Amino acid sequence: MSNRAQLAAVILTKNEAAHIGDCIAALRGWVNPVIVWDSGSTDATCDRARAAGAAVVQRPFDTYAAQRQAALDTLTVEWVLFVDADERATPELAAEVRRRLAEDTAADGYWIPRRNWIAGRETRWGGFYPDYQLRLLRRAAARYARGVHEIASVAGETGYLQTPLLHYNYRDWAHFHAKQPGYARLEARLLAERGIRPRPHNFVLQPLREFRRRYFTLQGRRDGLHGLRLALWLAWYYGFMPYWYLLRGG
Q: Given 3-state DSSP classes, what are the helix, strand and coil percentages for the chain, each rounded to the nearest 5?
């Protein structure tokens, strides 16, 4: 990679001690620097990150978008790769990133596909593959605006990489259920910011729409009982619960 195409990796964390060492190890040797952007971990995340060779920045959490934007505002490198602690880069992805950034026609951002494992099973349907994420960004051309599953705005063209990140979302169903209320509350906050107020029909129609989208439109049924279970739970957490939190004021 040329000196022009400097690349840093940023890993957002909160109590990710179980994942952070392996995540950093998959980045070292082809990304420099690796920066852990921590929002107040109370476990060994920060110590393990430093021991693995990463720099650590701590910033109180407000939204995922604000955390990512703060990293873009702070860094001075040309390119930033955002990676979650439960994601793993592969040597094949490293080679493709280096190749793309060395090209004179490099875009201002790249969507990276992900392979997702949920409760120990790779999940291929229901929106979980290729699950493109806009994570490789020319720093000066990108800005984050949304709050939950945020997407950067990029001034110029974006392209698509072929090699996926490996994403170990939830180690088991208990872990899945522990994480979802937080996402639902953030979604409720976004609805409130848009001036949306809950109506009785929202509590019926929104879960039905989310189930139909996951199970039929995105073909979650092709993952069998696993896909049905996911579609039902996601209808609850993303269709019903945000409006319930909105009704209760958060």
A: 45, 25, 35
